[in-house]
Specification:
two-stranded antiparallel sheet, single chain, 68% helix, 5 helices, mainly alpha
């Protein structure tokens, strides 16, 4: 007999929980709205569009290509892994892993080729925004870990996506600092 939480009482990773689904959708909508407002605040002309020169546009095109192919490869690898049985993570976590890896490749390539920061971007505000986003995602991940919500029955739960987001921003900060230090050494 099935319970209200699904065929296994809500203990498996495929059970349906409407409150959780609505929470995720609400979080995505609020996150998108906040991102739009933050993007408008970090651009000097308060535009949603960041301006790039021709060299940056070319490098960004290459970065998007590498990011796209990374997503394809990751999807194939996850698909192959799933043929051996279910992955020890919720489906949303595996999708975020793919997305964050693709975004990471795109962003690192862009940073390395001086195409990540736009001409109209206010760098100080941008760095503050990135730090806040990383900190909030780390906080959510730590709270989930402390409340035993990161791994349930050996399955990585949705808050692990927040940890992946934190890792992405930490990697981008590290690559940005390395790039900045290399450029300063070249100028000296």
């Amino acid at each position: 007999m099935c319970s209200e939480d699904g065929p296994t009482g809500g203990n498996d990773m495929n059970s349906y929980n409407p409150a959780r689904v609505y929470g995720i959708i609400f979080g995505i909508i609020i996150g998108t709205l906040i991102s739009v407002l933050l993007l408008m605040s970090i651009n000097k002309n308060h535009s949603l569009r960041t301006e790039y020169d021709e060299m940056q546009k070319k490098a960004r095109g290459e970065a998007y290509m590498y990011g796209f192919f990374t997503v394809l490869v990751m999807e194939v690898l996850l698909g192959l892994a799933e043929t051996f049985g279910p992955l020890p993570m919720e489906p949303l976590v595996s999708r975020f892993l793919v997305i964050m890896t693709g975004v990471g490749v795109q962003a690192v390539y862009s940073i390395w080729h001086n195409a990540y920061i736009g001409l109209n971007t206010q760098m100080n505000k941008y760095l503050v925004m990135m730090t806040v986003i990383a900190a909030v995602n780390l906080l959510v991940a730590v709270l989930a870990w402390v409340n035993n919500g990161m791994v349930v029955n050996g399955i990585l739960q949705t808050p692990f996506a927040n940890f992946l987001c934190f890792v992405l921003f930490a990697v981008l900060a590290a690559v940005g600092l390395v790039k900045k230090n290399m450029e300063e050494r070249e100028e000296a």
